[in-house]
Q: What sequence folds into this?
């Protein structure tokens, strides 16, 4: 999943949306900083464009108002129950397919290890029984290579087991995120909140002091969720009969 949104390295946790917001009028990226007032310093977002070139130029937007408005926008992006069920179904199918592939590959490697083990045992017997020194040395060299190959393949088996476990964890995390992206935004750490922005929105958001956020461009998964939601609403009959759920 890709996005053209770039985050400044010096993002402060106070301004989570800095680098992600554009002025709705001039499309310039908004800045974020503190302004000194009578009761201390207060956080604001600003359009850096000169007032002569933009009606919002030089104007400040209270950070709390922008953040609250964004939370409502994110809440509205939450997929419908049916869309979440569909997403989970697709994710589970992908997960099951991947696990099947991993298990097949892992079994193949384990079978190869067993075959190498048989060769190893046979070589040891030959080394013990032969009286030819050069032949014994040749067997020993071959034995070293087999042992190295067994070690490598055993490491691969361990790696596949780790991948298998990480896939299950990832599936759970994605499912939880899809059910409530707002929850991760409100309760996650700084990096998790930035991840929410990149997973839900495909481009920077535009903001206007009076009108709030403009139409947001969503990433493909959330765009599809909206399409599912809209199609379901269109299919609901006047009598209240809804289409079957997954």
A:
């Amino acid at each position: 999943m890709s996005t053209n949104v770039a985050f400044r390295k010096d993002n402060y946790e106070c301004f989570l949306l800095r680098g992600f917001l554009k002025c709705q009028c001039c499309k310039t990226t908004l800045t974020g900083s503190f302004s000194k007032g009578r009761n201390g310093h207060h956080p604001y977002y600003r359009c850096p464009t000169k007032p002569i070139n933009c009606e919002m130029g030089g104007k400040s937007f209270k950070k709390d108002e922008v953040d609250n408005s964004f939370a409502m926008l994110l809440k509205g992006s939450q997929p419908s129950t049916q869309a979440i069920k569909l997403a989970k179904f697709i994710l589970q199918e992908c997960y099951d397919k991947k696990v099947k592939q991993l298990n097949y590959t892992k079994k193949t490697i384990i079978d190869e290890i067993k075959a190498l083990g048989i060769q190893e045992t046979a070589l040891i017997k030959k080394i013990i029984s032969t009286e030819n020194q050069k032949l014994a040395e040749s067997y020993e060299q071959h034995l070293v290579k087999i042992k190295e190959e067994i070690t490598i393949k055993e490491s691969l088996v361990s790696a596949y087991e780790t991948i298998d476990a990480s896939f299950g964890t990832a599936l759970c995390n994605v499912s939880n995120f899809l059910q409530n992206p707002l929850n991760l935004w409100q309760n996650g750490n700084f990096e998790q909140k930035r991840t929410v922005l990149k997973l839900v929105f495909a481009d920077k958001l535009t903001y206007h002091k009076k009108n709030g956020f403009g139409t947001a461009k969503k990433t493909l998964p959330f765009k599809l969720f909206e399409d599912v939601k809209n199609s379901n609403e269109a299919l609901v009959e006047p009598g209240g009969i809804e289409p079957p759920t997954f």
Q: What stands out?
A: The longest strand covers residues 31-37. DSSP finds six helices and six strands in the chain. The chain has two domains: 21-78+202-235, 81-179.
